């Protein structure tokens, strides 16, 4: 009964004119951003954050959530029509989606993606509203030691789900945490790593870093490696946009399996929607009676990753809202937004700000319906947007990033800092150091240090607290396993297990 | 590319060493009630130092990577960066609205695919939008230049 009452409250908030408008704006922008190259959800939210100060926090969060799951829809369009993923979470959709488009079934691919995303997204919202309060109630038992363990586990899981050298992932994470230590120490009041620069005493604002790392750095990366592709338009006919009965039958179980995998992966801190879509594709291929058809236009190969990425984008809110731990770069930026509005996500959020939480959850139902309608009727509009040259887009990204950085303290110092972080992000990408661990390190760095110091203060300096509390032990063991996972994977590969079933170089 | 990766690893190594030494020498490791402000930076510095070594060793041992650090398009990036820096340095004269507008138009021109007419129209349009949308409607106090924008 509580759940129904909370949901009723949520809908009464989500269905106000202001929130309907912000939700619609969010999903529409999200879809656009998913289609346009060079702009991701974290960038878009970071660039828009400073501009939403005039909105109330609930409306702003509803809009950003709309952008997040809207992006998952938008990236599909480019994946299917030009074999270029609009977002990293749509990479797997390219494999079979483009193949379907080449056979003249682009409309069917887009339809199954939209319908699969809607079904999986709606189911994920139902599970979220059941699961998140339970997770929040469980998290009320957390003390500083548990939060320390949870953050270390989140860092560890980056080496499991991340790609590339595990040492580079750890280095990126450490740099992120190091950046979070810049400024005055909260306990002693001593300046740390300020180099005598007074502007550093308050630390480096997250918005400045995000505008640099995701805004400017992506501009440089996109200039250097423009993603071309041949746009398939001659084979896209509205009359062929509808699924045949056989296609629906072939795709329905993929939607369910993909949705479940996506929801579970999205719950895990650092899981992310890209990992979810990849795992869903691999699982669907293994479960298929005809795995040889994958990569050649199998509709299940589109349905599964699309269902997974949308479900994961929804379930990613569970650790953010209930634990205050972001699961991805996008939710990390949203966490920064929460902090800016003076809202602390975590277990108490469900009791102190029920309107915001349930308004957000209810808006996800509304947003998913709006997205389904947009995808069924406005695809030609979005296809037209693909023709906008990047040389025009990049200027506007720089404008938004510069104004976003400036508006933090109305000072050019932050703009120059943004340029510096832009160059850092560009260099990191060139040298294959992942950015997401740096972002999570920055966001969780303060939590890690504060929790560690509080735990040791409470235990009078004894480290017993980290191996005598069961929840902390579990988190730290998972972290240890995660850090050892590259060694485990190497050992399994030597033994002949875990061969990669798909060659990603073929994309 | 291999050399660039080695240099990157060495930079991280130096950063790690510098952070470790700075944290040890300038910040208290312990405080009155547990770890001090130098505790976390010290261990972060050590982590960076330790993790950079296998990265450097891997790159020293590895064969030459395919892919070049600098491609023809890299010079486009450099041009855009120079444009951004020059405009930001000139903001006291140009003002934020005009400066950002010049970046959009100049960027289009540098990418080489648009004529002067399109670039000029973009500059004018962007300056107007930035001034009225951000400066007036959102009341962000953007720095003004000699033209009052």
Biggest β-sheet description of chain B? 2 strands, antiparallel
Question: What is the alpha-carbon Rg of chain B in Å?
Answer: 24 Å
Mean pLDDT of chain A: 83
Number of strands of chain A: 2
Our count of domains of chain B comes out at 2
Per DSSP, the total helix count of chain B is 6
Biggest interface and residues each: A-B, 57 and 59 residues
Question: What quaternary form is this?
Answer: heterodimer
Helix share, percent of chain B: over 70%
Question: Strand-and-helix sequence of chain B, N→C?
Answer: HEEHHHHH
First-residue to last-residue Cα separation of chain B: 44 Å
Helix amount of chain A, in percent?
A: over 70%
Structural class of chain B: mainly alpha
Give the strand content of chain B. Answer: under 5%
- Element string of chain A (H = helix, E = strand): HHHHHHHHEEHHHHHHHHHHHHHH
Per DSSP, what share of the residues of chain A sits in E-state strands of 2 or more residues? under 5%
Low-confidence stretches of chain A: 499-507
Q: Averaging pLDDT over every residue of chain B, what do you get?
A: 86
- Rg value of chain A: 22 Å
Question: Strand order within the widest sheet of chain A?
Answer: 1-2
**Structural class from helices and strands of chain A?**
mainly alpha
């Amino acid at each position: 009964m509580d759940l129904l009452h909370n949901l009723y409250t949520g809908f009464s908030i989500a269905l106000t004119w202001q929130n309907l408008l912000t939700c619609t704006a969010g999903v529409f922008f999200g879809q656009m951003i998913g289609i346009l190259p060079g702009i991701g959800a974290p960038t878009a939210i970071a660039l828009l954050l400073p501009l939403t100060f005039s909105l109330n926090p609930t409306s702003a969060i509803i809009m950003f959530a709309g952008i997040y799951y809207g992006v998952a829809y938008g990236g599909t369009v480019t994946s299917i029509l030009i074999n270029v993923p609009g977002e990293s979470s749509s990479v797997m959709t390219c494999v079979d989606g483009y193949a379907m488009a080449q056979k003249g079934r682009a409309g069917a691919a887009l339809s199954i993606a939209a319908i699969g995303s809607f079904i999986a997204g709606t189911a994920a919202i139902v599970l979220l509203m059941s699961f998140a309060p339970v997770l929040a109630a469980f998290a009320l038992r957390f003390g500083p030691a548990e939060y320390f363990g949870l953050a270390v586990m989140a860092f560890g899981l980056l080496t499991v789900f991340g790609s590339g050298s595990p040492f580079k992932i750890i280095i990126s994470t450490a740099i992120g945490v190091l950046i979070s230590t810049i400024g005055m120490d909260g306990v002693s009041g001593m300046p740390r790593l300020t180099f005598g620069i007074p502007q550093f005493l308050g630390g480096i604002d997250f918005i400045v870093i995000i505008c640099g790392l995701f805004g400017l750095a992506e501009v440089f990366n996109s200039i250097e490696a423009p993603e071309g592709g041949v746009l398939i338009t001659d084979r896209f006919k509205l009359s062929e946009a509808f699924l045949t009965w056989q296609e629906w039958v072939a795709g329905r179980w993929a939607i369910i399996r993909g949705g479940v995998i996506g929801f579970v992966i999205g719950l895990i801190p650092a899981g992310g929607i890209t990992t979810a879509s990849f795992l869903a594709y691999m699982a669907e291929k293994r479960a298929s009676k005809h795995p040889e058809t994958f990569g050649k236009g199998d509709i299940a190969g589109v349905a599964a990753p699309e269902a997974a990425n949308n479900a994961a984008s929804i379930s990613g809110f569970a650790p953010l809202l209930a634990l205050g731990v972001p699961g991805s770069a996008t939710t990390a930026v949203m966490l920064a937004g929460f902090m800016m509005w003076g809202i602390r996500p975590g277990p108490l959020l469900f009791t102190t700000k029920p309107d915001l939480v349930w308004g957000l959850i209810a808006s996800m139902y509304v947003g998913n319906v709006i997205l389904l309608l947009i995808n069924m009727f406005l695809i030609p509009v979005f296809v037209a947007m693909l023709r906008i040259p990047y040389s025009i887009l990049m200027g506007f990204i720089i404008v938004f990033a510069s104004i976003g950085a400036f508006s933090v303290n109305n000072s050019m110092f932050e703009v120059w800092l943004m340029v510096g972080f832009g160059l850092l992000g560009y260099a990191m990408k060139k040298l294959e150091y992942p950015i997401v661990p740096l972002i999570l390190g920055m966001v969780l760095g303060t939590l890690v240090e504060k929790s560690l110091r509080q735990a040791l203060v409470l235990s009078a300096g004894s480290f017993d607290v980290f191996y005598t509390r069961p929840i902390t032990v579990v988190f730290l063991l998972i972290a240890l396993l995660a850090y050892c996972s590259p060694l485990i994977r190497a050992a399994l590969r030597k033994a002949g297990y875990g061969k990669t079933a798909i060659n990603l170089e073929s994309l | 590319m291999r050399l660039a990766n080695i240099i990157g690893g060495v930079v991280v190594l130096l950063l790690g060493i510098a952070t470790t030494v700075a944290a040890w020498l300038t910040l208290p490791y312990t405080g009155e009630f547990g770890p001090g402000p130098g505790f976390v930076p010290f261990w972060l510095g050590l982590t960076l130092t330790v993790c950079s070594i296998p990265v450097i060793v891997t790159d020293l041992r590895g064969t030459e990577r395919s892919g070049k650090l600098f491609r023809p398009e890299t010079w486009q990036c450099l041009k855009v960066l120079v444009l951004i820096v020059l405009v930001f340095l000139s903001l006291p004269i140009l003002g934020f609205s005009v400066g950002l507008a010049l970046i959009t138009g100049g960027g289009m021109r540098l990418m080489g695919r648009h004529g002067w007419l399109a670039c000029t129209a973009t500059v004018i349009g962007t300056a107007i939008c930035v001034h009225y949308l951000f400066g007036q409607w959102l009341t962000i106090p953007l720095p003004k230049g000699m033209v009052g924008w």
